Amino acid sequence: MNGTTDPRLSLRTEQIAPFLAMEVMERGMALAREGHDVIQLGVGEPDFDAPPEAVRAAMDALARGETHYTDSRGLRSLREAIAADSQARRGVATDPDRVLVTLGTSPAILMALQVLVNPGDEVLIPTPHYPCYPNMVVACGGVPRFVPTFAADGYRIDVAALEAARTPRTKAIMLASPANPTGAVQPRETVEAIAALGLPVLSDEIYDGLLFDGQTVTSPLGFSEDTFVLDGFSKRYAMTGFRLGYLIAPAWASRALQSLQQSQFISATHFVQSAGIAALTHGAPHLEHMRGTYQRRRDLLLAGLRELGLGIPTAPTGAFYILADARHLGQDSLAMATRIVEQAHVAVGPGRDFGVIAEGHLRFSYATSEAQIERALERLARALPALRS
Questions:
Q1: How many CB atoms lie under 10 A from the CB of residue 30?
Q2: Rounded to an integer, what distance in angstroms lies between the CA atom of residue 58 and that of residue 270?
Q3: What does the alpha-carbon distance between residue 331 and residue 347 come to, in Å, rounded to a whole number?
Q4: FRET pair for 261, CA 20 to 30 Å: which of 88, 107, 255, 370?
């Protein structure tokens, strides 16, 4: 899938698809190095700084010499803080011994799949989806099975379709709410019905807290003890470079996950864990400021894209993405995104990244300033009509 043919590479590596949005972003970065003014609307990274309390905590921890291994599960004080935060946000009592602190959320996803998936086992993934989900399933020897969701329904997951896609080899369901790339938040009754299917649910909740229009998030943790909560500090606290995530696991999987952590990563970075405690303790005002700013940006970008004729039937109510239908301009989203960054110097994400169902769509991130969004819309107004030619 990735176009490599070197016989020294494993067949599994051959099946890992490239992350096209990253490639478009990197092309934009190359153009910027050449002196062009490139506006990034394809980046899934907050443009805010981390909470100052978290930064100071990391610096203080370094000064104290917190530069060594910790317990493989993470500092007890951080796991207790995560458990308390989880109970406050999800309404479910959480045992700190079920918390595993990780080097970002991606290792949490990978290890959750590793404890579940045998070669040939299947994982159900609602689509459009985050590109790394199927790649991680494949990396574990599994088979991703995609279940479509649709813009006209607000990308609400059809639980009957999930059940129909289930086979004797199905081992888990991947759930993201709010979701990348759609910004969709699944309603409580849908989450409850997914949990009732009786399969382990891998619930990616990294965008919880970045919610608009009074939206709230429901976690399957409240309905099923077979839930793996995948979360972290990157989006909610703008701490992407800290690489700090966590996993809340079923009791029956906790020891196996700890063994994987010990063998693959040993532990999360010591001084960074102190920053995580500070973020959980002091980060609420920072989060609320970001949330309000993102909502204003969403409103600005949503109105502008609709005025340009792109199809967005339902406003996203979480995360910081808009997935827009551009099929009237072309069917090849990578070609469209490439032309836009080359000609308009605006980097956007090609829909193909997010599943076959999203081909002909473009993903826009509003993790940038309102001034940049306005400038990007002006450029897109000139560039999009040319895509028809």
A1: 12
A2: 9
A3: 18
A4: 88
